Amino acid sequence: MLTPGEIAARLNRLVFSILLIGHRKCEPTWFQPMRAMRHHSFWLIVKGKGTFTINGTHYPVEPGKLFFFSPGMLVERRTDEDQPIEYYFLRFHYTETYEEKEQWISRDAADSPFPLQGMYSLQNTPQFIYWMEQLCVLWQRRGHMTAMRRKIVLHEFWLALLHDFRAQKIAGDTTAVIELTQDYMVQHYREPLTLESLATMAGLSVSHYSRLFKKVIGYSPIDYLTHLRMDRAKELLVLSDFRLKSIAHSVGYGDEFYFSRMFKKVVGVSPREYAKRHRGDPVR
């Protein structure tokens, strides 16, 4: 199996076209005989049990399993009569297109195997159900902006999948767990994060998490979060004409006066003074 980083590198080079999205509850007698797949697709199992046979290998079907199918795969699918399968599915095309050394390179799917094949077990199934529900709703709508939103949500799904794989891979590796929460703060610094929630995410006590975070990163968790927010605030103060209240909200502070005090404490000058000094400087 490829590492999460290797999968991310491959997915970053792909451009997707969604062909079909749906949600299905199978009848107790549901059975699909062996057939060769014609399209790329994935199925997220949310209820029930059964057995899928892929190229001669039998896989157990149960909630939390994610199956990827590619053209040419020989697949047989069967549900358990007492616990019929319920699943979401998405069928897609893709092409590989990326820039390298100022040259654009393109390959069709036949020359660029998809990085995910067969069965995967998920650690946090509810978040994937959420993304599939969003995709199903968007599939019922039309319009260019809706099509763009579908593509964004599909990429959110891929990103969530990579985080899930990474969380499984680093279970027990405390240094990597710290880096995982660090990445989470970078992506979610606008949200009301707490030391308790970050420690829970890492699977550590608050005191152990705080000590380990400072040892690995060099800041306490809250100091690191504060610096993230202030770095973004500095960018906004220099590059935009947003009101101070808007900037405070955009970096996670509901109170602009508290934000101003924290900014001066970290940066050494008030937000207004910082903007006055740096706005209009050439961007390098």
TrEMBL record:
Domain named HTH araC/xylS-type: residues: 179-277
Keyword Transcription set for record: yes
Keyword terms of this UniProt record: DNA-binding, Transcription, Transcription regulation
Entry annotated with the keyword DNA-binding: yes
A molecular function GO annotation: DNA-binding transcription factor activity
A family per Pfam: HTH_18
Protein name: AraC family transcriptional regulator
Species this protein is from: Paenibacillus flagellatus
